[in-house]
Amino acid sequence: MKRVQGVAVLGAVTMGLAACGGGSGSEGGGGGGGEGSLSVGYSSPIASQPGQGFVSDGLEAGAEDLGWEVQVYDANLQASAQVSDVQTMISQQKSAIGLWPLDAGALSGSFAQAQGAGIPVVAVNTEGDQIDTTVWWETNRCGADSPYARDAERFAAAKPGGQVIVMGGPAVPSIQANVACFTEAAEAAGLTVLTQVDNTSDSSSGAATLASDVLTRFPEVDAFWTYNDSSALGISSSVIAAGLPVQSGDTEGIMIVGTNGDAEAIDAVRQGRITGTWDTDPYATGLAVIRAMRDVVENGSADPLVVEAVFYDAGNIDDYVAPTERDYSVDDIPLVEATG
Questions:
Q1: How far is the CA of 288 from the CAs of 61, 202, 263, 315, in angstroms?
Q2: Structural domain of residue 235, as residue ranges?
Q3: 3-class DSSP state for residue 142?
Q4: Residue 129: which CATH number?
Q5: Would you place residue 50 in the very low, low, confident or very high pLDDT band (cuts 50, 70, 90)?
Q6: Number of domains in the chain
Q7: Reported confidence tier of residue 259, pLDDT bands at 50, 70, 90
Q8: What is the pTM of this model?
């Protein structure tokens, strides 16, 4: 994948996340102030998750860049709450609505209402006929050179023919698609997927409990792959509690890989408690949502954006820069072209 500083081109792969209906909601325009001073809103899937907090930081920085106001709502992993959030943004006549949909189908009616009110919808990691444009994490693009395909290759190189446990999460379509992407790549790389367990609580403690159980059932496991860093940290605590080593740098052991680049996970990589994490750059994601909103409001449409992900392990962890210390702006975000 090629790194660019412009608009990324969306590949043909979808995440299976489509709302019903059609048409663009970008004509007309919602309320919230005149041009150059707009009020927009964003519904976070779970604001307490550290990465989602950085998305909010990026939203606020992007809004400040443009002289806009942004209000962030917290759905707290409740699809019904997110429907309510969108309804609230419509009633407040926001100039644009952003969200990471927990259930695009449940939101279909709300998206149609936004369309009727002339309020564009920008989604994260979700596309559909009633969504004006999408901001993708590179980790949510599945293909031969995708991050999770590279995870499978990394495991296979370190543990040829190795045995892997996959830990999924809540029944959010984008998470399920990521799990499927890795699982398919792992099997293609000659790895054996021993089992899949789902951390539906989306917590480190929930992951620790699940990991303790599967370690008893599958003591021969070579690697854990999981959808986020909270789960990776929970897995790590159970692996260490069982007296087993974690692979890090030259230290052999069980490989544990997460996603999000959370501060705790970055510290765990430094300390050798997890093998690595994909930094999805949530701060850049928030900026990208604001950029996409601006482009839709100004032009009536906008190309999708794909935010670059960087994998950190013992080999490059010293290069890590904290999200809010990165020198980004609305028009200078690390993006990639999707090749498929």
A1: 11, 25, 21, 29
A2: 141-279
A3: coil
A4: 3.40.50.2300
A5: confident
A6: 2
A7: very high
A8: 0.82
